Amino acid sequence: MKKLFSIFAIFLLLFCQTSVIAQEPLKGYVTESDEYKQLGDELFTGRIETLERKDIINMTVSQVLDSSYSAEGDEFFAEVTQDVYGDKGIIIPKGTVAHGMLAGTTEAKRLGRAATLSLSFDYLVTPDGREIPIEGQMTTKLHPVVETGKIVAQDVGYTVAGGAVGGLMALNWLGWEAAIASQGYTLAGGAAIGGAVGLGMALIRKGHEVMIAPGDEIKVKIKTSVDLPVYREDALKQEEILYDGLTVNINNVKHQKDPFGEVNTITLSLLISNMSDKTLSGFDMALENDYGKKFSPSIFGNTKLMYKQVKPGDKVIADVSFAVDNINRKFWLAFYDRRSGEPITKVSVDNAYRTKVSEKTKKKNDKVRASKMKKSYKKEDDFMDMDF
Description:
four-stranded antiparallel beta sheet, single chain, 33% strand, 5 helices
């Protein structure tokens, strides 16, 4: 009886497994395939481009990486700050997230040698949820020839400064008479002593620590080739809020330095046509980023629109500047209702940048942002922690 029951139980188990295998996956597979195909048709052109070996992707990190406490193996995420184009269109959009790991660190050393951080990247996650395996690298380490030249230049500065100080000390202690009587040997001797002191300072001087912080743009070199689909232009459009009768066109976007030399200013060239029932002014306007942070117009830019009312029936052409905390984020130009404080219109700066900004202006913006990049990513020393 037990033997018969065992045979029946085995037969029943096999029958159930066969039914699951025969019926369950077929239904799910067909549904997922149709949805994926529809999504692909909406997002991509159907053409394929290759992300080439040695291509460069501009990114900014999501957290602080500091040579004084970050350790090898630490994981972090970075965000792509500029669209990556192939010959046929965009293959990696701005906002794509990269997974990275701290591949190595070195400490600051004597002779002015700076600390270094080496980063590696293994995959990207696009805004549409695709995970793309890559191999990317970035390091703050200078080429040995460049680094040696930089140290020599700094150390010569120390030595020359030391010589000048030594000469002045000899002159102050012994006076002009002694200098003349010794035919300048007192000055030369003082300079030699000062030079020796300066050289000693150069030998014991420790290099600086390095730090990469959110907002700092890094350039990641790709080490492998990857085939990627080309996005449709309209698939990457940011959502906007429109108000009936109010048209706000962003015709140009410039990245600029503020009067203090910081690359934190976005200047928009606007054409506003107000055929709505609202009266607007610069005080109702702000630049809002993808974190919901708002930035009012800058007093260092063109203030014409700030103090002007745009009444129903008015058309205005003006530039307006905004000082922001991170020029690489996504932004919307917004006008707000005075009573409720809610936005009545939000126009995407990124949409305008892709479609209306000329290649010449984009290259100028790239150059301005590159001037912000700290080639050595020098970390400012805390006076209390300075090591001489």
